[in-house]
Fold this protein.
Amino acid sequence: MVLPFCFLRNLCNLRMISPPATAGGSDMSHLPIGIFDSGVGGLTVYRALHEHLPNERFVYLGDTARVPYGTKSLATVERYAVENARFLAEHGIKLLVVACNTASALALPAIRQRLRVGVVGVIGPGARAAVAASKGKSIGVIATESTVQSGAYTKAIAKVDQNAVVIERACPLFVPLAEEGWADAEVARTVAETYLQDLRSRVDTLVLGCTHYPILKKVIQQVVGEQVELIDSGEATAVEVKALLREEGLARTTPPTGALERQLCDDLDHFYVTDAAERFARVAERFLGSKPSRLEAVEVWGEDRLDSSPLGEAG
């Protein structure tokens, strides 16, 4: 696999990024969907989107050089997220999916302020799906330490149903278990039991609030019991993105030119990482069953601070 290294140079000033002009003028349906995550976890969101939207193309950015985002300040997460969003927007996208839970919790307003395309996070869709699924209004959320501390899922669920009772729990060891390919190992069950066993009788719905956690879905279900419905935030996001594209007239109705049968990670989808491309490819194969056909290492950087002026008004 050829892994060319290219550089994205910072714009002299922050400007609102618009999608490129199309041959048909206003038709953007042929443009790809952009996805970014702080690392490899967002690949589960890519998989869900690919399954629900087989006619679409995707551009994925994994900011592997700056992972994890959970230990960073709000200002830093916003800056990273805006830089990632700008990178994808400059490649021409019709919609941006923020697959990182931390960025979804902290940076969506900053991103939306600077892009002229729709922006969808993973927390809102996961919260709405959980409320719809819960019969007893008792909802659990498992996520990383930073996402739990932000209270983002509790707030999002309360916006839909103020009477829902939410229990949030951090499960940090699930991330390395998923990345190391130990989802079916005994250690995964031991860790899951330690984190989750008491939730069996306390919740009827459990949100997988980290993009790594669907890799461990089988063992999580075994531990909490079949009576607890698991909500994959990436899956919920894919459902909402599909509906949004239809509503906005942006859905691609035919397969891309030359596509006989779409496959995960085929050469119609483009993947970028900011570091450790070889490791990303290995983990992608664990998560998706195949390595990306088109994978490039890039360096994404911007100004050391976020400018409050919009990215796009000509001065």
About this structure: The radius of gyration is 19 Å.
